[in-house]
Structure prediction request, 245 residues.
Amino acid sequence: MTCVTVNMNGQQTPAPGSGGEGPDRRSSRIALAVAVPLSVFLAGVLCLATVIALTMLVTRAPESGTGEGAPTAVESEEPRGEQEPEEESGPGPDSQTRSSEEGASGGTGQPAPEVPPSAYDGTSTWSGDFRVECETAYTDTTITDGMGTSQAAPDGSEFHIYRLHVTNEGDVPDLFDNAGTTATTTDGREFTNDEEAEWTVAWDYFWEDIDPGQTVTTYVVLTAPEGTQFAEVRIGGDAVLEPRT
Prediction:
């Protein structure tokens, strides 16, 4: 039940404590209604600003690592321990095969060129004051001096015979000496001249000096397995006689 007071003008006003609301309470409720959404809005804005700030901080952190003074990859690596030496293995069958092939080809991997004895026909060299010309070169299993003296090569071998014209181009008589003549095969082996065979075929050319301007004919003989080919011949060990290419 509400109490009503009638004033002198006949207007009715609610009595104090009768349950009616005054202007102050309505203003407080309005202020509260406005303050709550505003607080929620400001809290949302603050959270959004915090998230943006954290995102920018995380994004810029890796970039700062590339600036001046950042540790390099080498500095960041942990020290490595001493490496154990690799085990050495001996040459296998394949390496031995390659070595033999390289020897036969001069180390180029290509087949050695064919050098028949006739490749020396017409070639020449110098030994001191002597001009040495190879008239012809050939192989045979028997040699002879044409006067009944002969010699046969051992089984599986043959003689490499070089018929030479030797001219003394110097000013004084001199002895031509082919001792120490060597020949190198196309697969790298070396043979020395066969003095016994040379004595058999050309014994009469080793006795006297050759006068200046004089030319004599003599021989160089080497004994080698059948099929051997020589890449060069060194008359007296130093005058190189090379085949025609």
User: Anything to note?
Assistant: The helical segments are 23-64, 73-76, 93-105, 195-202. Residues 129 and 189 are 29 Å apart (CA to CA). Residues 23-64 form the longest helix (42 residues). The first strand starts at residue 4 and ends at 6.
